[in-house]
Amino acid sequence: MMVRPTRLTAGPSHSYGFTLVELLVVVFIVLLVSAATLPTVIPALAHRQLGEAARLIQASLAGARDAAIHDNAPRGLRLLPDPGFSTAIGPNGQPTLARLADGSLDPLQILAANRFVPIETAPEYSEGKISITASGPLQAGFTTLPRYPGPSYPVLPGPAPYPVNQVLMVNAEPVDNTTGLPNVPTAWFWNIRVGDKIRINNAGHEYTVVGPMTIGPAEGNVEQFVNDGPAGQTPRWRKRYNIPGNPVVIPAEYLLLVNGVDDDGDGFVDEGWDGINNDPADNAFTDELGEWETEQWLGSKANEGGGVESQNLPYTIRRRPVPASNTREVALPANVVVDLTTWGTTLERSRLPVNRYTGAVDILLNADGSVVPTTLYSSPSSFGLASSFYHIWLAERTDVFPPLDWATHPSLNGLFQLPMLADTPNRTVPAGPTYNALRATNPDLGELKGERRLVTINTRTGQVLVNAIEAFDTGNVNYPFLAPQQGVRGEF
Fold it and tell me: Can you give the residue range of the structural domain that contains 88?
């Protein structure tokens, strides 16, 4: 019997995808939820980034202190400018920070840091021998000594007996004048920097190097290396050696110094080199020639300059900090910067020793946590009581503003240059205007909208505090800094 094959019939077809309508409904729900949650999520992310930045800096300062204990030498951090806020074009056509004619940074532009590098004290320098120049650094044919900035250093030339100079001088001793044998050569020019300290004969008082520097920051020497011309140029100072049977004149490097002492008893220490305009009634210039006092050698060298020249002396130069070896830069979270704006005016953001030429900030710590003054000037008194605390203002990039020029905002003259929170009251003058009232007449003023943190370092004790910044005062730019200076520790 034949069996007829059965026909297989296909069942009903089924689709396992999503329809366009279903996809649109899901996308709409996602957008709706995102719109409802973003106002909460974004501030939370910013809060987290600011907290991470504060903890990073706090931990790095603790690490620097540990390194100082381990190495028995100061260690610290150098905050580096954020190139993203460049406001000018440099000679190479690349964006750079805006500068004034003397090469210093323009204090009416944004300045912020977004990274840092560990620093340490540079190795001491002691190659060769030196002489204390008693007969004045100028000789026939060399009657002026160009200085940066300004026409010349306050050095008085003339025939013997030479007048007392307003700046001290030592020169490298190329040849031992008693034996005629050459000494180890020095390498000061384009190596030693203004602000380094020198101790002569490896004992006694330290003097501060103030020059020479004929090529300065305006020509690219923002690190302020001493020089009296381009690298490789023969020094213009000449040293005469009356060696029997072979008198010679040899070029020699030289350094100009101040002593860190109030020589004229007027209450100012080295007023020609203190970073302060000591004669404001005269003009607005700082450290001009007319301000310099007559400098004197101290201790056993007190009679130098009176006709006796000390020769073939050892010395040691203690140099300013440099980036630590075998380290690299550490970046802050992407949206966070250290706001340094108004560093040269009202100090409304960070309060730190900003290098006016490089924009960098050196924070150098001793083993006990106290801060080592890194001033270029001749005495720690220039560190000042105002530097009892360092304040590091952490902010979102969108909350960094260029300062207002008081010339175009006369109603704010002397008050502040940067935005505050909206509805900030005047806490010192009850009848004063609110911040919003000032904004009504100064629409460029703006307001802070992002997150902020303040890392405060007690420079005497090394204590580090972190606080949120929520209170402002339109009549007192110091108000945000008062709580941490009183030891208040906030939550972050």
Answer: 41-122+323-485
Same-domain pairing of 69 and 138:
no
Instruction: Return the bridge partners of 249, or none.
Output: 240
pTM: 0.82
Q: What is the CATH number of the domain that holds 470?
A: 3.55.40.10
How many domains would you assign to the chain? 2
Tell me the mean pLDDT per 10 residues along the chain, length 492: 54 65 82 67 65 93 93 94 84 79 87 95 92 54 45 48 62 80 90 93 87 84 89 79 68 87 83 73 64 78 54 90 90 94 92 91 93 79 69 94 88 87 81 84 88 93 91 88 86 54
* 333 and 473 fall within a common domain: yes
